[in-house]
């Protein structure tokens, strides 16, 4: 019999991953889904094939019936709150898997709390934009006790993701340490693209000409973000794909880790200052790609292209 799965947190990432779990996860029971704003869970359940999911009305209800509980929520406070609520019940023998991007100390703390309550814990942060979550193309980073990680693998490569980075047997915080450092590459990429496109416009090269080079030289995420910039997607969508607050949380973690380790990430500091401008201009609807708008403003151009 396949384990009973539950998924907590149906944001941009969670919704796409759940779709892949029910389609390819070889589940023999409906996936239990829970979200703080329940309507999101109801809407997702209605969009999935009939009988493939059930909506839980509380964290406790989701956890009590599940063997493996995945969490994917906004930030450190959110996941701590979720796990603390979960651990109020009997969790003996259950396995918690956190896919949120959080500080490695938070991850190690979650592992200690779960293990202290007789449960297992695996960290499984993911790389990839929401579109990759929907298409099952994420990269999953797995860390925690070997036997626990083995129980999670069947839901990663070929289901929610296209590949895994395997840190089996290492402390779970190593997975989120990689995730936080890895996300600085995304921030720096968006920063480089933004500056490049602004110079392309102001120097007379033209953004379409620069985009042609990017498509040829850097297919993949560079091209995807470049397209979001020149098409105006970075400011037009009401719901962000990679919310400014989440991007700033990741940058904060990276800068704190750098400071604690005796180094600095000056590129991240520059990116974060632009994210601050994005938040001022767009509020919570701001997206990491809107760094382009902030760099445009610095060059005397309008935020919106
Ligand atoms: N977006 C990306 O490109 C991306 C890529 C990789 C990893 N990640 C990481 O994956 C996680 C989820 O990202 P996302 O883009 O899916 O975020 P999102 O769309 O903003 O959704 C956030 C989710 O967390 C829930 N949440 C927030 N605060 C909560 C709290 N205090 N208690 C309970 N639930 C809470 C939200 O519930 P409500 O619906 O009630 O607000 C929602 O389900 C984050 O850690 C993010 O850094 C994101």
Automatic annotation (TrEMBL):
Q: Which organism is it from?
A: Venustampulla echinocandica
What SUPFAM superfamilies does this protein map onto? 6-phosphogluconate dehydrogenase C-terminal domain-like, NAD(P)-binding Rossmann-fold domains
What protein name does the entry list? 6-phosphogluconate dehydrogenase 2
The family classification in the record reads: Belongs to the HIBADH-related family. NP60 subfamily.
Q: Which residues form the 6-phosphogluconate dehydrogenase NADP-binding domain?
A: 5-156
Alphabetized UniProt keyword annotations = NAD, Oxidoreductase
Q: Which Gene3D superfamilies match?
A: N-(1-d-carboxylethyl)-l-norvaline Dehydrogenase, domain 2, NAD(P)-binding Rossmann-like Domain
Which Pfam families has this protein been placed in?
A: NAD_binding_11, NAD_binding_2
Active-site positions, per UniProt? 179
Query: Which residue range or ranges hold the 3-hydroxyisobutyrate dehydrogenase-like NAD-binding domain?
Result: 173-293
MF terms from GO for this chain are: NAD binding; NADP binding; oxidoreductase activity
């Amino acid at each position: 019999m396949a384990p009973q799965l539950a998924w907590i947190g149906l944001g941009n990432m969670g919704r796409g991953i759940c779709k892949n779990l029910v389609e390819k996860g070889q589940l023999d029971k409906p996936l239990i889904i829970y979200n703080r704003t329940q309507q999101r869970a109801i809407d997702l359940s209605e969009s999935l094939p009939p009988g493939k999911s059930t909506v839980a009305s509380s964290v406790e209800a989701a956890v009590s019936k599940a063997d493996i509980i995945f969490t994917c929520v906004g930030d450190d406070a959110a996941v701590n709150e979720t796990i603390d609520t979960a651990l109020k019940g009997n969790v003996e023998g259950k396995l918690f898997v956190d896919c949120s991007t959080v500080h490695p100390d938070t991850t190690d703390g979650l592992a200690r709390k779960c293990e202290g309550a007789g449960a297992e814990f695996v960290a499984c942060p993911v790389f990839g934009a929401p579109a990759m979550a929907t298409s099952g193309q994420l990269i999953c980073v797995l860390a925690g006790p070997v036997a626990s990680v083995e129980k999670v693998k069947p839901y990663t490569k070929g289901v929610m993701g296209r590949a895994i980075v395997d840190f089996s047997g290492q402390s779970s915080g190593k997975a989120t340490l990689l995730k936080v450092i890895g996300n600085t590459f995304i921030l720096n990429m968006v920063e480089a693209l933004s500056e490049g496109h602004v110079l392309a416009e102001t120097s007379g090269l033209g953004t379409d000409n620069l985009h042609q080079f990017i498509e040829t030289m850097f297919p993949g995420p560079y091209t995807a973000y470049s397209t979001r910039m020149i098409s105006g997607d970075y400011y037009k969508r009401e719901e962000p794909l990679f919310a400014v607050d989440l991007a700033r949380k990741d940058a904060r973690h990276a800068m704190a880790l750098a400071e604690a380790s005796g180094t600095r990430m000056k590129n991240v500091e520059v990116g974060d200052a632009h994210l601050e401008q994005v938040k001022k201009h767009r509020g919570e609807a701001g997206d990491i790609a809107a760094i382009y708008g902030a760099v445009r403003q610095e060059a005397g151009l309008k935020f919106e292209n």
